[in-house]
Automatic annotation (TrEMBL), chains A, B, C, D:
Enzyme class, spelled out: transferase
Species of the source: Xylona heveae (strain CBS 132557 / TC161)
Family: Belongs to the tRNA(His) guanylyltransferase family.
Pfam families according to UniProt: Thg1, Thg1C
UniProt-recorded name of the protein: tRNA(His) guanylyltransferase
InterPro entries: Thg1_C_dom (IPR025845), tRNAHis_GuaTrfase_cat (IPR024956), tRNAHis_GuaTrfase_Thg1 (IPR007537), tRNAHis_GuaTrfase_Thg1_sf (IPR038469)
Amino acid sequence: MANSKYEYVRNFEQPDPLLPNTWLVVRIDGRGFHKLSAKYGFEKPNDRRAIDLMNAAAASVMKDLPDIVIAYGVSDEYSFVFHKSCTLFERRESKLVTTVVSTFTSYYVHLWSSYFTNVPLSAPMPSFDGRAVMYPTDHNLRDYLSWRQVDCHINNLYNTTFWALILLGGMGATEAEKELMGTYSSDKNEILFSRFKINYNNEPEIYKKGSVVIRDYELVEPKKSTAAVDSPGMAEQESSDAERGISAQLSKTQQEKERKRREKARITVQHIDIIKDEFWQRRPWLLSNKPGKIPKEI
Amino acid sequence: MANSKYEYVRNFEQPDPLLPNTWLVVRIDGRGFHKLSAKYGFEKPNDRRAIDLMNAAAASVMKDLPDIVIAYGVSDEYSFVFHKSCTLFERRESKLVTTVVSTFTSYYVHLWSSYFTNVPLSAPMPSFDGRAVMYPTDHNLRDYLSWRQVDCHINNLYNTTFWALILLGGMGATEAEKELMGTYSSDKNEILFSRFKINYNNEPEIYKKGSVVIRDYELVEPKKSTAAVDSPGMAEQESSDAERGISAQLSKTQQEKERKRREKARITVQHIDIIKDEFWQRRPWLLSNKPGKIPKEI
Amino acid sequence: MANSKYEYVRNFEQPDPLLPNTWLVVRIDGRGFHKLSAKYGFEKPNDRRAIDLMNAAAASVMKDLPDIVIAYGVSDEYSFVFHKSCTLFERRESKLVTTVVSTFTSYYVHLWSSYFTNVPLSAPMPSFDGRAVMYPTDHNLRDYLSWRQVDCHINNLYNTTFWALILLGGMGATEAEKELMGTYSSDKNEILFSRFKINYNNEPEIYKKGSVVIRDYELVEPKKSTAAVDSPGMAEQESSDAERGISAQLSKTQQEKERKRREKARITVQHIDIIKDEFWQRRPWLLSNKPGKIPKEI
Amino acid sequence: MANSKYEYVRNFEQPDPLLPNTWLVVRIDGRGFHKLSAKYGFEKPNDRRAIDLMNAAAASVMKDLPDIVIAYGVSDEYSFVFHKSCTLFERRESKLVTTVVSTFTSYYVHLWSSYFTNVPLSAPMPSFDGRAVMYPTDHNLRDYLSWRQVDCHINNLYNTTFWALILLGGMGATEAEKELMGTYSSDKNEILFSRFKINYNNEPEIYKKGSVVIRDYELVEPKKSTAAVDSPGMAEQESSDAERGISAQLSKTQQEKERKRREKARITVQHIDIIKDEFWQRRPWLLSNKPGKIPKEI
């Protein structure tokens, strides 16, 4: 029995390749996490278990998908960055987005009980939506990540102050909201310090900076003369191929070597500044996609 | 601290609305399920636990997303159909696809242990990819679903015979593959019957027909004179609005009524023919999107 | 000398197929025609030469592109409709849109001097932009064309009254605009009649109805019982293929016959109602894409 | 008479913005120019009138659309390049492509009689199709243009030899084709020289290099140390904005100044190498989009 009579329906599937030589960011967001955080009693303003779970899921995604170069997470959102030379799934948008979203969700649910012990999940289950965005230049990509990290700071300062007013100051939510309306960062710092003896600078980095997930190679001493967005140390041909956005024609042996170095690399979660040049200068592998040196075990 | 300096990166997000007045099918597929089925020892040719788990996850997706009209699953794939008048997420493709994929994955992992008792999941975790396809007419949509159900039949007949040759006939995989090369359905039926006394017609419907998930209303007596793809019983204005693909301007009261009828409807999983007209004629709510009559509890 | 080093740039070209089984409308619009009409002294409210030129260009486009089923024009815009089963250029959006726009522009400039004698064109030259829109059902397509024809009526009634106030009533543009602000159709009819003895109903059909360009076959007596949007008289298999949106598997002989009937058909420009069912019922070839009967020469 | 009943059809129009911060190339191609060149008796292998007409039309397009930075043409194709920071028509693909195609066609037809005197145009009229392609980096853009210029060379060498074999060598087309099958550039050079005393290097540059259309500013002395793809001489903030792909926040006065410098710039057509760095280094305005210095009239 052939299937030819109905097979024409495949023609309705439309191609969705993302533009070559652009950075691909897949950002996922928790669906209805306001409600979900209430249901499972997340602590305010930040629930360490919830953040640790997000980070564990993100690290697992990076392990399963070695094409991801860096991930950045805050609250119930996570951004996964594929290198501009990435050709995974022939850069088909649906494939890339759904694979990231599904893998993340899978680990999130699987790992839930390790972080929320004795808090069983029940329907409706947590879920995430996602989208892909293309960024043509290293500069644009860095600005995207800076945007997320600045947002993290703005939101965390607000939330820290908001919940201090409520939990420590005894205000209601509406009253606290009103109190903060129109305030600047300095005002919020002042409220925290003068009323609650909280120095915002001493708040945990994980909440102030969000979480950065990368493969861990030996840090590089930044060269004075080299701009951050360049790919220092590349041979000229490689550099040229990289600028074209096509995978360098590496020999099988070289490819195998790179694969192994990626697999061997430890995936780490850090809470550091990714806005300044230093982060990128010391980790040239992020923009170049050439795996760095595996640090010696101690 | 304002975020204006980096916020321009939002302009790189591109709109992705799906065309109005088209049926939306989100089809998800297990990633690397060949390997996964080996890892967890799925029975061959069909593992009832695996299929039941897929169906349970699909039913949960339909419960969480009332905009889904019908779902059809076979093996490690599932198709979810949104009505052509659906406006969920303003029909944004990424939102629709990722929400379905993530919700499905979430339930799949959550419910795993109910179906695979004492078979704990471990990394790499199961995941699914997905894509959306638009179908302009009822006819195209039905042909899509027919395509999947015919495919189910073709694959199941092949797999049943293939594994009979191996498990009952003692052949190796290569030998069995060679044996089946170029055979017709009738040949496979003959092999099953003459060599293994298996009458394919008596195989379980769940494997032969796949699984159909719908909201369960009272079946309707098909009208002799009405074509299946019409929407019988609609008032003229409603019918006209339906043909335009715009949501009829229902009164708040009517909308509330419909919502309740949808919520009250039991979600059922059946293993029946969806190719023939009868299935659609008896369930006019599938194509019309007007909830049917809730059957009386017995 | 091979070109392989640079040829990778072809990979940046992205596919743009339009969805199968949808009506394709390419609408073109004059760029900056307000300024252009001043430059060449178009008569107000309507310049017959300008409209005749638009119509002549549109008819030529239909002659060159037999895949176009119907075109409708008003003022400096024209809509060209490709049948939902059309496979020209594999339905690539850019190809379809640019071909229509370019062919139209070419004839517009070429034929200019036949309609504007002694009014030579000069830089900046007239040009048109265009876009494609998909409509899934016959109903949607008819609504699109109805939308344009209603717009034609609304604009023409407004312009006729506006220019009567100016040319016959001696008003300035601002004054006339103010006078018409907030008026209904009936008010404008009244102004025309009471102040200027103009009965709007007696205005030329070409301005009130716009211009419809079709291939001219023998009109069909509408069947009482058949809905306009069906395809009466089709054999069942053909009808089924038509509903799928795939080209019926016509024999070579049949295809050749159809081609000839299309080529033989005279292209006519008419100024008639295309909103009511009658227009479509009497010209079933428009929706079915089966060429009608060539009228006998008299 | 309101138009609300049908106006819903506008919802079927889909957004089509091109990605910010990418170079936009609109390439147009003559439709059926093989046939057209026979109809109007184009000379072989190159017809100077036809090329001059293409170039004149392209120069007019650049005059009408100041957002175009450079255009490159060969045979019946032309590529128009919009700067990566261009925001014309909000970067809507259809608008950009159709405007270029239509404007080009308009001038092509209008100027025809200036180049083909006593060769009147007749239906079917010349027309062009077009498409837009995005290139993320300066490097990719330059590779695109290099690709076209290398193609020009390859085709022209082939055609020159092919037609020499026919027109001077008395061969038939099939025979000439066979003669050239599998030959390298050096073989064709040899054929031209040994059989027909033609030194390919002495062929006109317009055929060997194609045509480059740019605004003519004072050439810049290339700096030894600066890579071609950078934007030398920019102040740091400007450079940073340029890398972001957003229009620098120029003051009104500055904008006005730039507009005037663009308008004052003469548009020139040249037949020179655009593959080597020199072309770009001496004309930094092409990649930076900062208008250069208007040369003094002599």
